[in-house]
């Protein structure tokens, strides 16, 4: 710990170290530093929710499985003796998919493909290298996963170039294989094809969010082998070259592919703002009934996950903490109902399963940073389960781990934040808050319970008007409130003595990534010399650095901003949604530069925004030690 | 009967003539209740100041802006005071609104008042067509033109549609089971398509058992019935002339709702119908009791009744200046440096505020003199009150506040 810190302090200036130090330094200086190496990839992997193909996921299984692989292959071949070529890739579901035996399309059999993913990837590498891949339902998976293997096999030299070529190759290969598969499956009956397609899609997507965690696993679990180190390094380099690990939605071919695989059939909005074309934007409200009817067909999806996904989709659950808790509780149920399929190990199978669920959740709504961190934690725990544990023990351990994460990182964290923040509220204060941040709400309520005399200004904005909910709850408790919209912010800021804001995440350059409008509030406040305090649980901090809110963001329902609820008389934009000359932009988040933030209140204390990287570092360390 | 015929004939006269009719209103400048009793013993209710402006000014200003051209103010109790006030106010010479007063000391109810007006009308033929019936304590900013038009068209289609009642979703208060305005819970049944009023229950709602009796025939005759218990009756009615003749025919009708509306709903011989109109964003409320006095005052201070707010000139009031946090202060207020005037407060002209005073959520009238170290919270102090040093005013009940006012004013 100490040893690691010292070199850091020496090598890098405090702020900049975050972005760059991670990418270049640690491998050369200190090899066995799990945290440092683990943190880089994430820096560049703009978000765990990113849609880019994540090669990162594969290495751990490869290393881990390198010994077990032959065994598995044998087992797989035993299962599906019909085709030995498949067995190399352990695409056991081949049997079920191509054999067109709907009877076998049961939960168990379907969970297999997804769970076997990491293994598949690494096996596939071998197969794909020969590039004589037989048609199978899971070809896409294997191909997608292949390039990372390739790269990690090849040494780190001339990475950028290689990257590009592999991407192109991969695409070409994939196309070819899809064609082959289609041909092969043409006689194989429609139903199996479709289902296998959807499964494959989830698998592929799953790899993306999984990347940070798997990396961590990779490094943390098997810190010993030096070959791993090399693998990790190459990944890092590659990552540095690829600036957008998120899927770019303006890349048409990829979008088409992703769509083909997606479980949630979202229709893309027709007219989109040019600058934000790289973000997914869907026609809202169309997919929900469709997905509901699909409930009984999506066999591999655990009902709890399914429910949470639908709630995300419909907007019933929103807010970083609520979404994260809902997801973790769903995962708890998943773990509870889990049973290791034959000829598999719990660690890998469950990781893959979780990945597939995560990909489903992403399809419903892009992950928040908090969720990404939580997923990383869960996967880390799974990967670190001792093999000696029995299945029931492992499950119990996992469930309690998740429970503890919820309690420690979210619930207790909030109470600690409240304790810290309350000290900043004095009698006669006029506090301004924006939107409906849960942490701030708790702070206000607690301060009120303590008998502090203060007034709250709730600033809100269309179209969500979340502030009204907060207002309702505050008024019920007898807090004196004023409600206004964000367009009055400069008028109302005169009266304010402190601004309390929530955050979706705080990035390591101190940028606060939060509900759209937050930046505006913070800037006006700092122009009026009003301190801006951001309440944010530490698990929402992220190593990523982001300078604007364009490259990574979320687009909401475009219709929401054109419609004014309850005022039919002023809905002037009705029927203009399909006008080519008009694009609606409903951004969900924005990035507030750290200059406008006076203080960030986390469960680790009150820190200036420049100290976020410190917490990120320490937190991650603790995280991996848990 | 003859009167009714006359009304019918007039309606059928000519639609063009009807549209050219002057928009008229009857304003009952007496609530015929004793709810404001200790105060109303010496002053008419409609002249009580509501945020330093007599209530009747709010009603007249609203009627004027809503396009009403002629108002008949019916005065009963303290009629001379009302007439004097109207004579001296700018309503007497208002270009768009003709205010006529009708004086009767014999009336003891709204029914009597309308009968009296009807008798007057047969002599001078004053009420020409559809009219708006309001009470002199109504605060509203709703537009009336469309509503009257709607009423007229409905009347043209259906002779029997004689009245349109304005209702508004009420905000229930959390503490009491009454509405914010302190009125009893209202239970009404409405046909969702035609908006026809089918049932109106104000008093007999059995709170203990939480049950309401509906006539079975209601269900038989209507395909669908919408039941509300979260509505508030604004006591703003668009009436056809038949309403007056109905009152004349049924001389036992006293109360507008309890007798007249119920009578019309029960009576299936004449087959008259009452319709409802729900208003959404605009404001309408009646100052019926002390609680609604408090509520409506706060609504005015918080500007729900815009443009009838203290900083805008209407009906001859002197506008006061609006500061941050809803502090309205007249320009000539003498305020000590150490005095703290907090949010949602109105301070009238010529008022002196002494050292160390704290004033919050209160209305202070014109010409008041407040001593040192006085704390005033949530109180209403009318004109020309002297408050001595060191008093603490923070009643929870408006009634008590008024009592205080009385004892201070007598000091």
What does this structure look like?
The complex is a heterodimer of chains A (about 625) and B (about 400). Chain A is built from 25 helices and eleven strands. Chain A has about 625 residues and is α/β, with parallel strands linked by helices. Chain A has three domains: about 1-240, no CATH class; about 300-410, Four Helix Bundle (Hemerythrin (Met), subunit A) (Up-down Bundle); about 425-555 and about 590-625, Translation initiation factor eif-2b, domain 2 (Rossmann fold, 3-Layer(aba) Sandwich), CATH 3.40.50. In chain A, the strands form two sheets. In chain A, strands 3-2-1-4-7-10-11 form a seven-stranded mixed sheet. In chain A, a hairpin with a 4-residue loop joins strand 5 and strand 6 (about 510-515). Chain A is globular and about 70 Å long. The two termini of chain A are about 15 Å apart. By secondary structure, chain B is α/β, with parallel strands linked by helices. Chain B has two domains: about 15-300, Alpha-Beta Complex (Spore Coat Polysaccharide Biosynthesis Protein SpsA, Chain A); about 320-410, UDP N-Acetylglucosamine Acyltransferase, domain 1 (3 Solenoid). Chain B has twelve helices and 27 strands. In chain B, the strands form seven sheets. A seven-stranded mixed sheet of chain B has the order 5-4-1-6-12-8-13, with helices on both faces. In chain B, helix 1 packs antiparallel against helix 9 (about 240-250). The longest helix of chain B is centred in the first third of the chain and has 15 residues, at about 110-125. Chains A and B meet through loops of A and loops of B. Chain B: Keywords: Cytoplasm, Initiation factor, Protein biosynthesis.
């Amino acid at each position: 710990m100490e040893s690691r810190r010292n070199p850091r302090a020496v090598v890098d200036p405090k702020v900049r170290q975050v972005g760059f130090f991670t990418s270049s330094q640690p491998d050369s200086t200190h090899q066995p530093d799990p945290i440092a190496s683990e943190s880089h990839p994430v820096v560049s992997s703009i978000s765990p929710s990113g849609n880019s193909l994540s090669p990162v996921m594969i290495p751990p299984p490869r290393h881990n499985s390198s010994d077990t692989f032959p065994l598995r292959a044998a087992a797989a071949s035993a299962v599906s003796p019909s085709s030995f070529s498949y067995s190399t890739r352990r695409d056991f579901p081949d049997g079920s998919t191509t054999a067109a035996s709907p009877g076998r399309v049961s939960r168990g059999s379907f969970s297999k493909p997804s769970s076997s993913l990491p293994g598949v990837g690494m096996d596939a590498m071998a197969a794909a290298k020969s590039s004589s891949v037989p048609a199978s339902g899971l070809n896409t998976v294997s191909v997608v996963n292949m390039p990372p293997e390739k790269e990690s096999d090849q040494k780190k030299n001339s990475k950028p170039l290689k990257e590009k070529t592999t991407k192109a190759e991969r695409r070409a290969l994939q196309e070819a294989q899809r064609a082959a598969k289609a041909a092969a499956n043409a006689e194989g009956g429609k139903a199996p094809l479709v289902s296998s397609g959807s499964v494959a899609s989830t698998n592929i997507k799953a790899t993306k969010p999984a990347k940070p965690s798997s990396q961590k696993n990779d490094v943390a679990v098997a810190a010993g082998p030096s070959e791993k180190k090399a693998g990790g390094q190459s990944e890092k380099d590659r990552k540095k070259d690829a600036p957008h690990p998120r899927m770019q939605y303006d890349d048409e071919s990829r979008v088409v592919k992703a769509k083909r695989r997606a479980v949630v059939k979202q229709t893309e909005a027709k007219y989109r703002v040019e600058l934000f074309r790289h973000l997914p934007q869907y026609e809202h409200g169309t997919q929900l009934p469709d997905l509901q009817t699909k409930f009984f067909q999506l066999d591999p999806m655990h009902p709890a996950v399914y429910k949470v996904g639908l709630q995300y989709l419909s907007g019933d659950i929103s807010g970083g903490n609520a979404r994260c808790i809902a997801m973790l509780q769903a995962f708890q149920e998943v773990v509870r109902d889990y049973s290791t399929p034959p000829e598999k190990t719990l660690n890998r199978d469950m990781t893959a399963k979780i990945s597939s669920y995560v990909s489903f959740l992403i399809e419903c709504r892009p992950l928040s940073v908090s969720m990404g961190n939580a997923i990383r934690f869960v996967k880390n725990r799974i990967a670190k389960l001792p093999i000696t544990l029995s299945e029931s023990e492992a499950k119990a351990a996992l469930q309690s781990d998740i429970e503890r994460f919820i309690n420690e990182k979210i619930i207790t964290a909030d109470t600690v934040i409240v304790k810290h923040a309350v000290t900043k509220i004095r009698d006669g204060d006029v506090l301004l808050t924006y939107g409906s941040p849960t942490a701030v709400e708790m702070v206000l309520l607690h301060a009120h319970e303590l008998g502090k005399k203060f007034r709250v200004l709730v600033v809100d904005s269309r179209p969500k008007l979340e502030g009204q909910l907060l207002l309702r709850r505050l008024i019920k408790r007898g807090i004196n409130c004023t409600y206004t919209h964000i367009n009055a912010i400069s008028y109302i800021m005169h009266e304010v003595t402190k601004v309390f804001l929530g955050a979706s995440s705080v990035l390591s350059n101190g940028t606060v990534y939060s509900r759209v409008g937050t930046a505006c509030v913070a800037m006006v406040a700092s122009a009026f010399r009003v301190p801006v305090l951001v309440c944010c649980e530490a698990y929402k901090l992220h190593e990523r650095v982001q300078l604007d809110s364009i490259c990574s963001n979320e687009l909401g329902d475009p219709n929401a901003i054109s419609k004014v609820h309850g005022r039919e008389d002023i809905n002037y934009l009705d029927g203009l949604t399909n006008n080519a000359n008009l694009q609606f932009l409903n951004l969900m988040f924005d990035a507030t530069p750290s200059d406008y933030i006076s203080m960030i209140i986390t469960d680790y204390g009150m820190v200036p925004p420049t100290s976020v990287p410190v917490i990120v570092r320490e937190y991650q360390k603790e995280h991996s030690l848990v | 009967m003859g009167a009714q015929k006359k009304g019918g004939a007039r309606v059928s006269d000519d639609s063009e003539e009807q549209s050219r009719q002057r928009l008229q209103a009857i304003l009952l400048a007496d609530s015929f209740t004793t709810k404001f009793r200790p105060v109303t013993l010496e002053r008419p209710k409609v002249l009580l100041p509501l945020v330093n402006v007599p209530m009747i000014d709010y009603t007249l200003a609203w009627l004027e802006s809503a396009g009403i051209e002629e108002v008949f103010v019916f005065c009963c109790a303290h009629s001379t005071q009302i007439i004097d006030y109207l004579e001296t106010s700018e309503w007497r010479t208002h270009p768009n609104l003709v205010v006529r007063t009708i004086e009767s000391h014999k009336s003891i109810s709204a029914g009597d008042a309308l009968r009296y007006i009807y008798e007057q009308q047969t002599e001078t033929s004053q009420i020409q067509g559809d009219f708006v019936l309001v009470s002199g304590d109504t605060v509203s900013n709703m537009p009336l033109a469309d509503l009257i038009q709607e009423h007229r068209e409905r009347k043209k289609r259906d002779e029997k549609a004689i009245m349109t009642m304005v209702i508004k979703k009420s905000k229930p208060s959390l503490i009491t089971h009454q509405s914010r305005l302190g009125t009893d819970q209202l239970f009404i049944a409405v046909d969702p398509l035609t908006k026809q009023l089918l049932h109106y229950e104000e008093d007999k709602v059995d709170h203990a058992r939480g049950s309401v009796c509906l006539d079975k025939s209601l269900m038989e005759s209507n395909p669908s019935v919408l039941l509300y218990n979260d509505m508030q009756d604004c006591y703003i009615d668009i009436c056809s002339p038949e309403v007056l003749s109905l009152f004349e025919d049924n001389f036992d009708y006293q109360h507008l709702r309890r007798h007249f509306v119920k009578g019309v709903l029960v009576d299936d011989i004449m087959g008259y119908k009452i319709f409802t109109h729900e208003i959404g964003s605009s404001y309408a409320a009646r100052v019926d009791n002390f609680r609604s006095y408090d509520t409506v005052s706060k609504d005015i201070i918080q500007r729900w009744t815009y443009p009838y707010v203290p900083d805008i000139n209407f009906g001859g009031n002197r506008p006061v200046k609006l500061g941050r946090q809803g502090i309205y202060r007249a320009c000539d207020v003498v305020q000590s440096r150490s005095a703290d005037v907090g949010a949602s407060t109105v301070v009238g002209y010529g008022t002196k505020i002494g050292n160390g005073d704290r004033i919050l959520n209160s209305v202070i009238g014109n010409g008041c003199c407040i001593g040192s170290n006085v704390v005033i919270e949530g109180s209403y102090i009318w004109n020309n009150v002297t408050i001595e040093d060191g008093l603490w005013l923070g009643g929870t009940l408006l009634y008590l506040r008024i009592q205080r006012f009385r004892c201070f004013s007598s000091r």
